[in-house]
Specification:
heterodimer; A: 79 residues; mainly alpha; 37% helix; globular; B: 96 residues; alpha+beta; four-stranded antiparallel sheet; 30% helix
Chain lengths: 79, 96
C-alpha cells in the first residue's frame, strides 16, 4: 500500500554571493555575514545558503573572525 | 613587506578623540621598521556582541599597513600590553 515517496526535484538555488558579485568575504561586513547565520548565531549549512564549498569555508572563517572581535555573537538565547 | 590589517578594541571609558593620536604613537614601531601606515580608521563606540571584561561596549579602530612580519608582531605585542586595549586582531586580507 505504502507508495514509495515521489522523487523530489530540488529547486535550483541562486548563489547569493555570485549574484551580488562578492569575491572577498570581509569579516568586518557584519550585514553580509548575518545572512549566513541563524537567529541563534549558528553558521547556516551550505545546503541552506547555496554557495560553493570554497565560499562556505570563507564565510565560516569570516564569521569566526567576527565572533572573536565581538562583531557577531557566539550564541544568542533570546529571540 | 606585506599588507596587514589590524583591528583593535579599546576600553569604552576612554575619550574617543584621544584614541587616534594614542594609537598613532604605537604605529611608530611600524614606521621605524621601514613600514608604512596606509590608513587609521576609528569606528567609534560600538556595542559588543558579548561582554569583554564586563564591558558591554568598545571603541573599534582598524589600521591598514604595509610592514614586515616582525614589525607587525612587535606592534601586536605592544598593543596587548596596554590594559585599555581589550582585544586585537591581525589579518592579511589577501590570504583570508
Amino acid at each position: 500500500m505504502a507508495k514509495p515517496a515521489a522523487i523530489r526535484k530540488p529547486k535550483k538555488k541562486v548563489n547569493p554571493l555570485d549574484k551580488e558579485g562578492i569575491t572577498y568575504i570581509d569579516y568586518k561586513d557584519t550585514a553580509l555575514l548575518r545572512k549566513f547565520i541563524s537567529d541563534r548565531g549558528k553558521i547556516r549549512a551550505r545546503r541552506v545558503t547555496g554557495v560553493t564549498s570554497q565560499q562556505q569555508r570563507q564565510i565560516a572563517r569570516a564569521v569566526k573572525n567576527a565572533r572573536e572581535m565581538a562583531l557577531l555573537p557566539y550564541t544568542t538565547t533570546a529571540r | 613587506m606585506r599588507h596587514y590589517e589590524v583591528m583593535v578594541i579599546l576600553d569604552p571609558s576612554l575619550e574617543e578623540r584621544t584614541v587616534g593620536p594614542s594609537l598613532d604613537t604605537y604605529l611608530n614601531v611600524i614606521r621605524n621598521a621601514g613600514g608604512s601606515v596606509e590608513k587609521l580608521d576609528v569606528w567609534g563606540r560600538r556595542r559588543l556582541a558579548y561582554e569583554i571584561n564586563k564591558k558591554p561596549e568598545g571603541i573599534y579602530a582598524v589600521i591598514d599597513l604595509q610592514a614586515t612580519t616582525e614589525a607587525v608582531a612587535e606592534l601586536d605585542r605592544q598593543l596587548r600590553l596596554n590594559e585599555s586595549i581589550l582585544r586585537t586582531k591581525v589579518v592579511r586580507p589577501e590570504v583570508h
